[in-house]
Amino acid sequence: MRATGIAGLLLIGSLACAGQEWEIGAGAGYGLYRTASVYAPDGKATAGVRNRFALSGILGQDLFEHFSGEVRYVYQDGDPFLSARGSKANIQGQSHAIHYDMLAHFSPRESRIRPYMAVGLGAKWYVVSGPENPAQPLSDIAHLVHTNELKPLLTAGGGVKLRFGALLVRLDFRDYITPFPKKVIVPAPFATARGLFHQFTPLVGVSYSF
Questions:
Q1: β-pairing, 148-164 with 43-49?
Q2: Nearest to 62 by CA among 7, 25, 9, 11
Q3: Fewer CB near the terminus (10 Å): N or C of the chain?
Q4: What CATH number was assigned to the domain covering residues 21-209?
Q5: Is the pTM of this model over 0.85?
Q6: What is the reported pLDDT for 2?
Q7: Strand partners, 70
Q8: Residues 6 or more apart whose Cβ sits within 8 Å of residue 55
Q9: pLDDT at 19
Q10: Domain limits, the chain
């Protein structure tokens, strides 16, 4: 009986492995940021990252008919900035995000059109590549610093996969949510940073399933 049970487990495992499907692909889109704020005794400044293009790569595994998982990397070219009282401060930068998403599909794996919802966790690396302005405006509210900062990341969104044989065309939307990067945008003494950083990112991609 023990041998029969082991054989049954091996059979179930082999069937699960045989039924799985891998996916590898890339995409491009545009990162649209929702701004946050810094409040100081001398006033309030809008803080955020410039809206710029985004590039993405994915590796996914489709184990079940309606649920799958994927690792995604996203590069977004965007400069941290401050804006208040008719003045602006800017420093060159970009971000790198890597996360694991769980996808809940509304139709089976082999469907031609497969919409889904997604949620995931990961990390986002804010990178400042440009020099600081020694006479930076709005420094009485906050200061843009030439440094890098790693933040925890929550992702949420959805999309649709369009199947053409082994080729998939993907239309995706993600909201990349992190806490305020206070090492990159440093509030002045007695100032307070408020708000989360949201990077709303529509993406168009192509992937191959095997």
A1: unpaired
A2: 25
A3: N
A4: 2.40.160.20
A5: yes
A6: 56
A7: 60, 101
A8: 26, 27, 28, 74, 75
A9: 56
A10: 21-209
